[in-house]
Amino acid sequence: MENIFELTDRPAEELFQAKRDPNDPRLSEVVGRAESDLDAADIVILGCPEEQGIVRAGGRAGAAMAPKVVREQFYRLTPLNISRRIFDLGDVRTGRTLEETHERFEKLIEALLSTGKRVVVIGGGNDAAYPCGAAMSAIYGTKNWIAINVDSHLDVRKTAERNSSTAFRQLLEEDLLIPSYFYEVGYQSHFCSPVYFEHIRSLGVNRISLELLRSRTEADIELKENIKLKFIGHSSSLNTFFSFDMHAVRSADAPGTNDPSPLGLRAGEFIQLVKYAASLANTRIAVFSEVNPSLDLNGRTSALVAIAMHRFCSGIN
Predict the structure, then answer these.
(1) What is the tally of helices (H) and strands (E) in the chain?
(2) Which of 264, 171, 286 is CA-nearest to residue 209?
């Protein structure tokens, strides 16, 4: 794994300043960042400060700042209940094109997965889901992984060039993801093209709308039961990839996105889904994307992602 450091920029040193109270440690004091810390780590944080995919899709620039801003919030939190060792690899070095960045990013994810690491990705656009999914297929085989896209949109748009709305269309069309192993979770019907919805329905993609999630007493029950019924007996062989697009969360709790909506998951429901992702023995990647700090209010969206990362790290058994 020696070349992964050539593909990344190290996290800023000022994030790791020790606090004044020795009885109140923060994650800035316990997360590893020296190259020698990597081998012993269980969880690796990797940023993707890429926004070309969002701009290509007609969105506003600003998401490239998210990895830095989310880290600022994350490293203020305490390590309470986190027993796994965490390493911050920094950010992928973005290329001249989105495709070049994705190629580098996929290499990084493959290298980390091949040594048994779990990866927490801070986007950037949700187009990062494509290289993550391609890496899952390359390391585990197409028949041995499932993808869960928690998003208000479907992200199966068909366009001439890839963007932040095409990731899962690419994975499906390139036969890297089996349709029946793919879950669209939390989508809102008024944001979904009837053409694209019919496309995923005809393929046999699993669909759990925001309304269906809300019909349960707890946000994660519907997803839990779907996965349990479908993959009972396969839990030891199926690896899982969660993509958490912050458009899935209502604007009252996550105002800092390109397409905020008054409807969506509440912050507590979102955290509940993140904790469920952590509880699955074979969850390998959790991506948090589409935060735009330039549109945020008092760092509310970045803080929610930081807390979600904490809950993911503390929820791994």
Answers:
(1) 11, 9
(2) 264
Contacts of 192 (CB under 8 A, 6+ apart): 153, 154
Q: For 222-284, what is the HEC assignment?
A: HHHHHHHHHHCCCCCCCEEEEEEEHHHECCCCCCCCCCCCCCCECHHHHHHHHHHHHHCCCEE
Domains of the chain: 2-315 (3.40.800.10)
Structure tokens at 54: 């969002």
For the record, the structure tokens of 108 come out as: 């990084």
Please state, in angstroms and rounded to a whole number, the distance separating the CA atoms of residues 4 and 111: 8
Mean pLDDT by 10 residues, the chain (317 residues): 86 87 93 96 98 96 98 97 97 98 98 98 98 98 97 97 98 98 97 98 97 92 91 77 98 96 97 96 96 97 98 94
What the block records as the tokens of 86 is 């965490």
Residue 304's Cβ-side half-sphere holds a number of Cα atoms within 13 Å equal to: 34
The DSSP symbol for 153 reads S
Measured between alpha carbons, how far is residue 16 from residues 11, 151, 262, 288 in Å?
9, 32, 36, 21
Specify the pairing of strand 239-245 against strand 145-150: parallel
24 CB-near residues (< 8 Å, 6+ apart) = 78
pLDDT of amino acid 121: 98
* Rounded Cα distance, 76 and 25, in Å: 9
CA distance 297 to 240: 32
